[in-house]
Amino acid sequence: KQEVTQIPAALSVPEGENLVLNCSFTDSAIYNLQWFRQDPGKGLTSLLLIQSSQREQTSGRLNASLDKSSGRSTLYIAASQPGDSATYLCAVSDDYKLSFGAGTTVTVRA
Amino acid sequence: NAGVTQTPKFQVLKTGQSMTLQCAQDMNHNSMYWYRQDPGMGLRLIYYSASEGTTDKGEVPNGYNVSRLNKREFSLRLESAAPSQTSVYFCASKSREYSNQPQHFGDGTRLSIL
């Protein structure tokens, strides 16, 4: 069974600092890995999807890397802003099923 | 630009009552999913439908049933609600299986069972 772990569970940083969020998974036979953002009381918004053959994906200030062999992914958010405050979820996909981590809750202090 | 719409947004039930959570998507997606999210845990898959006319169990199907009414709609039914089913329920859709496309999520239904 795929286990997905996100450490730390919570993170507080001053505005402007770079954020580094970690995700680890136990089974390297994945189809893709996704990073989501969840705002309080809302659903999940897809941020980045990395295919199993890719090493990284970038979108604006966000960059996600994937190391399948070691079972790890890292989400980098450059120059954080208060609007980046949210919970960030990592999920890995096999053929149909997404397995989620519990998330990292980020607070960016103005 | 609705995407995935879930109704109701909030619901309080008594133990033993039944109810159906509704989900509809307007993106012409083939695959649809139901998840539950509990504090401190990631989302867990309850049931999914890879295409119209098919449904399959996920990780935590006990106590739930689903219906893929048509391509747009996928409902989740609690026949006899239990306090352990208090959770936030999310519906999601995706263009098709075996595709590197993201799942799109609704805003969730917050369900409390007393």
Give the key terms.
heterodimer, A: 110 residues, mainly beta, six-stranded mixed sheet, 58% strand, globular, B: 114 residues, seven-stranded mixed sheet, four-stranded antiparallel sheet
Number of helices of chain A: 0
Q: What integer value in Å does the Rg of chain A equal?
A: 13 Å
% residues in beta strands of chain B: over 45%
The computed structural class of chain A is mainly beta
- Helices and strands of chain A, in order, run as EEEEEEEEEEE
Structural class of chain B: mainly beta
Largest sheet of chain B at a glance?
7 strands, mixed
Order of helices and strands of chain B: EEEEEEEEEEE
Largest interface: A-B, 24 and 26 residues
Describe the structure.
The complex is a heterodimer of chains A (110) and B (114). Chain A has strands at 4-7, 10-14, 19-25, 32-38, 44-51, 56-59, 62-67, 72-77, 86-93, 98-100, 104-109. In chain A, β4 (32-38) and β5 (44-51) form a beta hairpin. Chain A contains no helices and 11 strands. The model of chain A has no long low-confidence stretch (mean pLDDT 94). In chain A, the strands form 2 sheets. In chain A, strands 2, 4, 5, 9, 10 and 11 form a 6-stranded mixed β-sheet that branches. In chain A, strands 1-3-8-7-6 form a 5-stranded antiparallel β-sheet, with no helix packed on it. In chain A, 0% of the residues lie in helices and 58% in strands. Chain A is mainly β and 110 residues long. Chain B is mainly beta. In chain B, the strands form 2 sheets. In chain B, strands 2, 4, 5, 6, 9, 10 and 11 form a 7-stranded mixed β-sheet that branches. Chain B is globular and about 40 Å long. Chain B starts with a strand and ends with a strand.
